[in-house]
Design goal:
Layout: E1 8-11, H1 31-39, E2 42-45, H2 47-50, E3 60-63, H3 66-70, E4 75-78, H4 85-102, E5 106-109, E6 120-122, E7 130-132, H5 136-143, E8 147-150, H6 154-171
Parallel strand pairs: 1-2, 1-5, 5-8
Antiparallel strand pairs: 3-4, 6-7
Helix pairs in contact: 4-5
């Protein structure tokens, strides 16, 4: 008996939900995403909103690294130096809980986000500069064995998911 496709965690803004700090979305038009959406395997999440932040909200940036935020060494702050770390941590934990609840092994998250960035994030200066790094949620998911892809890596995510599904079917 064929197993249903694995569910995939995805940043809600990529599906057109206006949950970003500025009240906007970053909707991605992609045939694979559309197929997955129609199959009902996408699990949308906005860690910042799920963590308790409103829409719109002041932008947050990591002062240090995401790994240091997770261990309590670094913070996420607004440009006015308000500490909003607890919201980012709560949202990351919520995303991880969704992955555990739905047996999710892959996530497609919004690049350049202090929550979801998988390879680049704001540099902490609030000057719209980006640096190599990952967001708090992306870091926590990776620490727990979940593969994280950006919206620019949907084909790579599909290949990973297809390979994982094929491997699972071979063992059942």
């Amino acid at each position: 008996m064929a197993e249903s496709p694995s569910k995939i965690l995805i940043s809600a803004c990529l599906l057109g939900q206006p949950v970003r700090y500025d009240g906007q979305s970053k909707h991605v038009e992609n045939a694979t995403l559309e197929l997955w959406k129609n199959e009902g395997i996408l699990v949308p999440v906005c860690p910042e909103v799920n963590g308790g932040l409103p829409v719109p909200r002041p932008a947050g940036e990591i002062q240090g690294t995401a790994a240091d935020v997770l261990t309590g060494i670094a913070q996420v702050t607004t440009a006015k130096n308000e500490d909003i770390t607890r919201f980012y941590l709560s949202g990351a934990e919520h995303a991880l809980s969704l992955c555990q609840q739905h047996n999710i092994h892959a996530a497609i998250l919004k690049e350049n986000s202090p929550s979801c960035g998988s390879s680049t994030v704001p540099d902490g200066s609030f000057n719209k500069k980006r640096i190599l790094g990952e967001g708090v949620t992306a870091c926590l998911l990776r620490q727990n064995g979940i593969r994280v892809f950006s919206e620019n890596e949907i084909s790579e995510a599909a290949a990973y998911i297809n390979a994982k599904t094929a491997k699972t079917e071979q063992t059942t």
